[in-house]
């Protein structure tokens, strides 16, 4: 029932608000054995009063449903949480088991799986709130798919599966999703693997972004000798490599194309340009207006595009004519030039609320008086000083006097006094910055050795799991690791189990610290070296 713009979907709901609006919807995650009743892979049933527009957030690798987004579009009803938000093994297997059928078989299965990358403006999750341009596109897609289905018991659900960008195409080909939606540019290399819809955007230009101090680029050949950092899986990388062939054929020095961490989105790379960590990157022209509003230290070289005439489209498997027809019907209402498409683009260009927490260059600088502490205790406990700096920035924004009244978290690293008093730490004066850093590093090393470390564990996973343990508690993370299919891998594995059970706070915390770690490591290594090694390669001595 809808009351004052709110839809009651469960008896004891958790409210979800979209953006700053007070209008929202509610859902409740399942509880108890009754709500985990088994349901076979091919016989998933939904009651006739369920809402059709449900965007299910599903972990791409650990194969768990992270959350459920039910969209109010006039087809109101009451979701049965045990059925509509099932997190048991049968539904998990049903959604992630490779499937390569066409749309008619998806209708029988009553689900379409969309692979989608996370990004602060594109597709963002904060707690139980889901926002971004892609989230709005998925709502329209599900509405289009169900347009001619009047029997609610036969409605088709769209499931959004968070997927790293470098796996969008491979996972689509492998049948782990049915559609890939990720601002994908059509390229010959991608076209050899998958088919694309009619373009959502045409005549897309790929624009070089540098700091404001760089002289204006008048032609793509002016990039000769510069260092440009992009993800290897991106169309930007393909086009820079092609440009290098032209430069070398003309006797010019090639562009130094650096491969960025695939976990970083384009906005992260633009922000790194803004911070002076990398010399240049590339982004699409239809998003650069937003980034220029937020990152005032960048310059977009529109006169020297790396590539022009690009098309952005949805991808799906080859030999899927029925799905292609449905997707193209959606595109006809959502592409640039249509009313809905133009509204989305205007909202994306104008609305920077998704990026409001991005720190300024001044705030992000390493404070000299603290660098000594980071170095001293990082060396003593064999923890990268850049990681300690990243945690300090995330926790307190380098405010050594910060004390949280409700929780009692204190100082630079926001240590809890009770934790600092533990025999394994034994440090009391947390308002002293040096003691605060000492307490953190001593406790952090204990967490790693006592709760996280396993033989043959990758350094980056050891780091991420220790961060999660510091934020959410070591026993809780240890328990959630046992529930994960790959307990020694954080990204897209334990990460999603934590998100499903605990919520987004710890996941956001770890991702933010990881991002800041990349920044601070880049500050000390310089723009020429920043992407030479994986930022998660932290070397800790084994016990």
Task: Based on the model shown, name its key terms.
single chain, about 550 residues, alpha/beta, Lysozyme, 3 domains, 10-stranded mixed β-sheet, 4-stranded mixed β-sheet, about 40% helix, about 15% strand, Lytic transglycosylase F, Transglycosylase_SLT_dom_1, Lysozyme-like_dom_sf
Can you tell me about this structure?
This protein is an alpha/beta fold and 543 residues long. It has 3 domains: 2-177, no CATH class; 204-311, Periplasmic binding protein-like II (D-Maltodextrin-Binding Protein, domain 2), CATH 3.40.190; 361-525, Lysozyme, CATH 1.10.530.10. The protein has helices at residues 81-84, 89-96, 103-109, 133-145, 168-173, 188-191, 235-249, 266-274, 285-294, 321-334, 339-350, 361-364, 368-381, 385-396, 417-420, 433-452, 459-472, 474-483, 490-501, 504-525; strands at 2-3, 6-7, 14-17, 24-27, 54-58, 65-70, 111-116, 124-126, 129-131, 157-162, 179-185, 195-196, 201-211, 227-231, 256-260, 280-284, 298-301, 307-316. Strand 5 (54-58) and strand 6 (65-70) form a beta hairpin. Helix 17 packs across helix 18 (474-483). The longest helix is centred in the last third of the chain and has 22 residues, at 504-525. The model is unreliable at 1-93, 339-343, 352-357 and 527-543 (pLDDT under 50). Keywords: Cell outer membrane, Membrane. This is Lytic transglycosylase F.
């Amino acid at each position: 029932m809808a009351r004052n713009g709110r839809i009651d979907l469960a008896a004891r709901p958790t409210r979800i608000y979209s953006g700053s609006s007070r209008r929202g919807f509610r859902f409740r995650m399942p509880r108890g054995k009754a709500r985990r009743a088994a349901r076979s892979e091919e016989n998933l049933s939904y009651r006739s009063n369920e809402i059709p527009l449900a965007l299910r957030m599903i972990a791409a690798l650990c194969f768990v449903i992270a959350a459920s987004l039910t969209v109010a579009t006039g087809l109101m009803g009451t979701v049965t949480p045990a059925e509509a938000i099932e997190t048991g093994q049968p539904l998990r297997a049903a959604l992630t088991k490779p499937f390569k059928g066409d749309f008619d078989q998806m209708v029988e299965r009553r689900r379409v799986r969309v692979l989608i990358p996370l990004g602060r403006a594109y597709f963002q999750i904060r707690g139980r709130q889901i926002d971004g341009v892609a989230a709005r596109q998925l709502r329209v897609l599900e509405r289009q798919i169900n347009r001619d289905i009047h029997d609610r018991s036969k409605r088709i659900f769209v499931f959004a599966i968070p997927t790293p960008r470098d796996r969008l195409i491979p996972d689509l080909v492998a049948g782990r999703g049915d559609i890939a939606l990720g601002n994908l540019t059509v390229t010959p290399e991608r076209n050899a693997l998958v088919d694309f819809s009619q373009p959502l955007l045409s005549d897309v230009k790929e624009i070089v972004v540098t700091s404001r101090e760089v002289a204006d680029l008048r032609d793509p050949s002016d990039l000769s000798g510069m260092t440009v950092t992009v993800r290897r899986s991106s169309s930007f990388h393909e086009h820079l490599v092609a440009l290098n062939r032209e430069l070398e054929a003309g006797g010019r020095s090639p562009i130094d194309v650096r491969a960025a961490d695939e976990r970083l989105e384009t906005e992260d790379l633009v922000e790194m340009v803004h911070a002076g960590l990398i010399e240049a990157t590339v982004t699409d022209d239809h998003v650069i207006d937003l980034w220029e509003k937020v990152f005032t230290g960048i310059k977009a070289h529109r006169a020297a595009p790396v590539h022009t005439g690009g098309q952005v489209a949805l991808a799906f498997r080859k030999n899927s004519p029925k799905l292609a027809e449905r997707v193209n019907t959606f595109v006809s209402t959502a592409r640039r030039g249509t009313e809905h498409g133009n509204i989305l683009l205007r909202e994306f260009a104008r609305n920077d609320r998704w990026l409001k927490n991005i720190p300024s260059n001044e705030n992000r600088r390493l404070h000299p008086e603290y660098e000594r502490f980071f170095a001293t205790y990082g060396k003593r406990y064999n923890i990268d000083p850049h990681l300690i700096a990243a945690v300090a920035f995330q926790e307190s924004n380098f405010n050594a006097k910060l004390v949280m009244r409700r929780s009692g978290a204190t100082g630079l690293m926001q240590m809890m006094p009770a934790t600092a008093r533990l025999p394994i730490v034994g440090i009391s004066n947390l308002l002293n910055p040096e003691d605060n850093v000492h307490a953190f590093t001593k406790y952090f090393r204990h967490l790693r050795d006592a709760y996280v470390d396993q033989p043959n564990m990758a350094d980056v996973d050891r780091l991420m799991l220790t961060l999660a343990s510091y934020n959410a508690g070591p026993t809780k993370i240890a328990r959630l690791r046992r529930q994960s299919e790959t307990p020694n891998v954080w990204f897209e594995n334990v990460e999603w189990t934590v998100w499903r059970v605990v919520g987004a706070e710890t996941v956001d915390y770890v991702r933010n610290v990881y991002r800041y770690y990349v920044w601070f490591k880049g500050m000390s290594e310089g723009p020429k070296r920043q992407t030479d090694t994986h930022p998660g390669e932290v070397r800790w001595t084994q016990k």
